Amino acid sequence: MIRDITLGQYYPADSPVHRLDARVKITATMLYIVELFLVKNFAGFLIAAAALFAVIALSRVPLRFIFRGLTAVFLIIFFTLILNIFLTDGRVLWHWKFITITYEGVIRAAFMAIRLVLLIIGSSILTLTTKPIELTDGLEKLMSPLSKIGVPSHEIALMMTIALRFIPTLMEETDKIIKAQQARGADFESGNIIQRAKSLIPILVPLFISSFRIAQELALAMEARCYHGGKGRTRMNEIHFHRGDAVAAVLLIGFLAVIIASRQLGSVL
User: Fold this and answer.
1) Quick count: other Cβ atoms within 10 Å of Cβ 45?
2) Residue range 84-120, pLDDT digits in tens
3) 22 and 99 in a common domain
4) How far is 67 from 5, CA to CA, in rounded Å?
């Protein structure tokens, strides 16, 4: 399951989505997330899903690779479903002792599950089709107006990119620690919830130590390359806005208009 996390990984391919400006992809991802929370009916989710799968088809990233990332958050999605189904008031569909399932709870649970799935896939597409250095440059360019009021846009963009970049690395490190502990006889599957939580301590302690070690090695590598922040720093490849980026921006605006219009189709339909 640890290896199934795709967020933060880059999938190399020659596609129109890969060639888009990082600023366009970052803006599109942020707007897509906002639009998912604007959707109030199944018609809107259908439109959002159709647009997302169209982008996936253009990106040439295998569907199996993308859906593999959902297995790592399946427990969160399942827990959210249970909470919404059993803790929402409304028209009673089924009742037994203290357990009650309502129509509104089922609808809200379905909305939340669909929203989470689309949100995770949409966020993964950003990192799967954008190189870490391009992601850093795009974030820095988008936040550059804030630097005029003293906000360290370059440092913030760098930290966000490093955090995304090292998610797969930490997941691989966690997988190695789990296998090493299991080889020593550790049991992470038997017992109640409290016992399972205690059994995670032999994983968390080495993981924290490994994280600090990786952070120290990264800091030393950056210092060895004379990195002193973004002031006066140049780039080998500057990002530029092309015709394809303009087309993507227009399509994004059109998609936003369609999502807003779909809110008028009814509260559930």
Assistant:
1) 20
2) 787 777 787 777 777 778 888 888 888 888 888 898 8
3) yes
4) 10
CA distances from 106 to 80, 173, 220 (A): 11, 39, 52
Domain span at residue 197 reads 166-238
Closest C-alpha among 201, 127, 113, 203 to residue 160: 127
Distance of CA 228 to the CA centre of its chain: 29
Q: What global pTM score does this model have? A: 0.74
DSSP 96: E
Q: Are 6 and 128 in contact (CB under 8 A)?
A: yes
Asked if 83 and 99 sit in the same domain, the reply is: yes
Residue 118 CB partners (closer than 8 Å, separation 6+): 36, 45, 48, 49, 52
Same-domain status, 7 and 107: yes
Token pair, residue 246, equals: 């303009």
Does residue 145 lie in a domain region?
Answer: no
Shared domain for 4 and 123, answered yes or no, is yes
d(CA 217, CA 233): 22
